[in-house]
Amino acid sequence: MKSIAAAVASLLLIGAFTIPLYSPRLEAQATGCTDAALALAEGQITDTLAYTSTVLFPVETNPANSNKWSLSTAPHWTSGFFPGELWFLYEKDLTDSWLTRAQQQTASMQGEDVDAADHDIGFKILSSYGNAWRISRDPADMSVIQTAANAMATNLWRPRRGRHRILAQLRQPHYGDHR
Q1: For residue range 120-131, what is the model confidence (pLDDT) as tens digits?
Q2: What predicted TM-score, i.e. pTM, was given to this entire model?
Q3: 2, 8, 111, 156: least CB-packed within 10 angstroms?
Q4: 133: domain range?
Q5: CATH code assigned at 139
């Protein structure tokens, strides 16, 4: 059973997470057709930083509040996306302010690496710590990713059925019905 869990954890790290094992020397991205899109994203994220903190994460825009983000804490399934966006902005031009905020926001995800009640752990950890490791190669970030993969393999793998618990949920008629 432990070998199955180890195999699943390895597959999750190598295959499903698609984190490249090789990364060339980090350089700022070249200019090109994405400049306008990146400038817009940077402006929107800068606006978001004005009313959020490193322990809150944008979830969805709120039309009743001038389309500002509704905020949530780290356990929300989308919480890893925002730190990931901050890492992308850092990668774009290697600005220290983006690096600092990306590190702070990612650090606020600490503890989510063992919250494997469902498959959302991948969204939370890989968007935040996955990008952190991809860019910085900090072994501490990889340790968090490995802990999350182990938690997912341990908590979601159903050895008697030979599949992840999530696959069984997909067969339920209510799955995905958000009415």
Answers
A1: 888 899 999 999
A2: 0.73
A3: 2
A4: 2-12+35-161
A5: 1.50.10.10
